[in-house]
Fold each of these.
Amino acid sequence: MNVSNIDKAVALLNSIETGDAEAIKYVDPDQYTQHNLAVANGLKGFGELLQALPENTARVNVVRAFCDGDYVVCHVDYNFFGPKVGFDIFRFENGLIVEHWDNLTEKASAKNPSGHTQIDGSTEIIDREKTAENKQRAASFIETILIGGHLDKITDYINPGASNYIQHSSVMGDGIENLQAAIEQMAQQGSPMTYTKNHKVLGEGNFTLGVSEGEFAGNHVAYYDLLRLDNNMIVEHWGAIETIPPESEWKNSNGKFGNL
């Protein structure tokens, strides 16, 4: 029976909770490259991580998953050394996982001002024929608005009004008005959210994931932004921001964004 790359990625993630050793067969033991800087490279590093987890504490719920060529993206609700939400990216060669990137953030204990959690919302993948177009739109939004800072052009990508932009950030409400206000407030408080480089945009149909680098509250960070598009406009956002540790603390030398 053919097993899709998405099913393989989900099985590997679920094995963190279940301990199913069968899922490791989906990983190439000779090529597996790890970009989580807190984990040593290769299958050995992955095994050491699992052994370090307090017994019976791990929980994994893959809420969204999509495929872009040799890449699979998973949006995951975790209990992984504490409650977290984040994204995992797997790259496949010849049907096996050869590379992994991720970005995790603490799970909020309460809903955001508009009543959303970090993981609820739409999950259905549609408009697959628009994948390339939607990826280009997401890349343009990141370059123009998030990196370029041209907030005056935000309505080229998001329609005004709270009902036209659903926000899953734990601290922001719906609508571009709240997004603009939050960006301006953070800048005024001396903790600007700065994007400096976009490394990759992956997508399938109406979902795209942007992997970017920047600064937040004085820290070097990775930004993962999941965007849902409808009729060429961004209508929903989920994200995860993770601080990148200094190189002296890395457990592998592959880099947070290596090979993306």
Amino acid sequence: MAAADGGETAGEPRLRPPSLFMMLAEARSIFELNSSLLFSPLLLRAPKGDGHPVLALPGFLASDLSMAPMRRYLKELGYDTYAWNMGRNLGGVASKRGALRDLLQRIHETTGRKVSVIGWSLGGIYARDLALQMPDLVRSVITLGSPFTSDVRATNATRLYEALSGEGINDNPEIQKAIAGDLPVPTTSIYSRTDGIVNWHTCHLNPSETAENIEVYLASHVGLGVNPAALWAVADRLAQAEGEFKQFDRSGPFAIAYAPRENAQS
């Protein structure tokens, strides 16, 4: 597997982006949205929130509208949800750092509480970077299909990202290496091996006592943020008490949708 800085490990090929077939299959995301609506009564039986603030960061080319279903769901469960309010996400991990720090600081000052940060795809990279920069303000990080480790060029959006953001994927190797490493806060990476945009290996973190991977079977990249099994996992992770962490219990109502822990972390 490629090294964390985007280079190649000796004797091993670079990771490849998902195939054209997998990318075209992303159209199934509409079924994931419809499923979450169908299962909404069940989803609302997830553990209730304690009112702490949750910041939702959209993926590349997406806006706050993409995270609206998740924010509504979490608000129903009792969380104080926040959008990023920066329009469409056109990328720029380095260039967005200052604005995101200011946003996190404002939410913390407004609420007086640590903030859980959820990021979908590129938004998850921002979330991990925020936790590294301002760990005292971040309660936990949850990423959804975020390519933050290994050969991060193994996506079907790399060239477009570089063109629109003005940043090369490997322009900031120190930042990239730090984001790929361990975080100082509880961390969950939710991903799917059937992701048609990013190679799932790039979403796989090093599991520890405060970090875990949750693999969702058959989920798409575009639909991961509205997938009912992913939504349940997000709600379950957020419901943990501040300063506490235990591994995700896959025996809940969507148990059939999750890979076993030993497979998800191998």
Amino acid sequence: MPTARDGAPGSGRLRPPALGLLLAEARSLFEFNASVLLSPLLMRAPRGDGHPVLALPGFLASDLSMAPMRRYLGALGYEAHAWRMGRNLGGLARMREAMHTRLSEIHAASGRKVSLVGWSLGGVYARDLALQAPDMVRSVITLGSPFANDVRATNATALYEALSGERVEDFAEARAAIAGDLPVPATSIYSRTDGVVNWRTCLLHPSDRAENIEVHFASHIGLGVNPAALWAVADRLAQPEGEFWPFDRSGPFAIAYAPPERAVSA
């Protein structure tokens, strides 16, 4: 059931994570260190088939934030690409053309569909790209991305609006589409202990080619380097093109994942 902090039941309004969760984001350093220590275990993930993967950073972040993810995916056999657009200062409409161009470059060079991995705001961009260019996108994986429900329920909304020049309420039709079903397989990885976005804004509609994966105790800033999240990303990317099956939570990081029914029962 929603708490007072999450918003009144039935109101449709959510609130940003509490201050305590925001302050606890400092634990992201420990998540990174854990992934380094557990790198031998992480390398037991399914090997990639060499298809291209475009990594999209979160709000205020740059390609540097996605470097550990790209290195990991490259080591598993994927063709991992940076977005090459500097620091992500937001603006869905402003960035759409540039992202489409980058996607087209990678698709043309490889001759293969591109999987998109987006962290936070980068995941919102990824879902929009899949809607705009489904013929070039193989799958979408988001990490702590606020694309559904009341997307104002983040601790970064005011800053996003100030820097991007866009209000969250702008482009309502596009945002509704982003929150809906995608024409490609989709996975949303999130944590209830996210200190930046309300975790309910990260939930997609589960289907035969879309699912939510909850990682226990992960931070928002640490999701892209959290070992359990990295394993889940690698597992989802390893699915053959055009195929989709539920994530197997019995792997080496089983204790880190919530059961799949938990999201819909909350």
Amino acid sequence: MPAAIWRWLRYAPLTFWVIGGVGVAVGTVLRVLDGAGVEWWKAGPVRAGFEEFGQSVLWVTVPALLIAVLTAGSLGALALYVENWWGLRTEWSDDRTLTVRRGLLTTRSVGIERDRLRGVMLREPLLLRAGGGATVQAVAGGLGDAEEAQRRGSLLPPAPRATALRVAAGALRRSDTSPFRQPSLTTHPRAALHQRVRRGLYLAVLPPVVTLLALGVLLTPVLLHCAWMYAAVATVTVWLLARDAHRSLGHGLSGPYLLTRSGTFSRDTLALRRDTIAAWTLTTSPYGRRHGLVTLTAAVAAGRHGYRIPDLDAGEAPAFAAAASPGILDEWLVR
């Protein structure tokens, strides 16, 4: 195992599996017990544990439970990281094949032909980005469906962003990291920010607030105070996340590559070979039509098979698509 990967272990807890892994493990155990007909919730130790938890001081027991979950999740994430990425080697084994070899208990080796490599994606999930890390994903054909392509196309685990930039550039056979380091991307209209704020308010703020208000009127006034406190905190959170998502939006062209960046929970920067784009789809919503926003989707025979550039200016989107892949939209453009 390369010495560098031991230093990268600090990025393992900054992933979904810290909490999600615990949920998956608990769910698997409960499903097995249910399949065996075991009524685990009736067991004496389980009932005693629930009673003790309910009778204890919650401001002590709840943080203690959260710490226990995070500790278990972190240990699990570290174990998965080592098992999946032990002995990592990502290299061009010859001029035509990019090879990724990794694994401790099970050695995995994936060869990606150069002709099937459509591009590279730099992924920066929120926690990993806060810690200065990133992962690298190959966009290639012949790796299976979207889920299999994501698993088999992984070129680098959570690692320092500088390392991820070098791996992404190496996969593109470039001597520099210019497509990713500070890409010159066109920003998106401010209406895209407003759309994200509205969506967050409608989905994350309004339903819980209405529910708490209704329960407060029917049950106890305490829930009325919970409603306004939740509304205040959630509204600020939605605004901050929407602003970050809007700042992440961008698109552009860099030589033979189309560049697009989007996302806040996972900010993804994609460098896609322009000559591999098979078709374009332009979609919009009622809000988008009113405010001049269009989402472009590039159809590619690889990876997810479609890569979105969300919320472009409606007047610029067709021209950008035509410039990125000449000939596809020519018959639809008004000269």
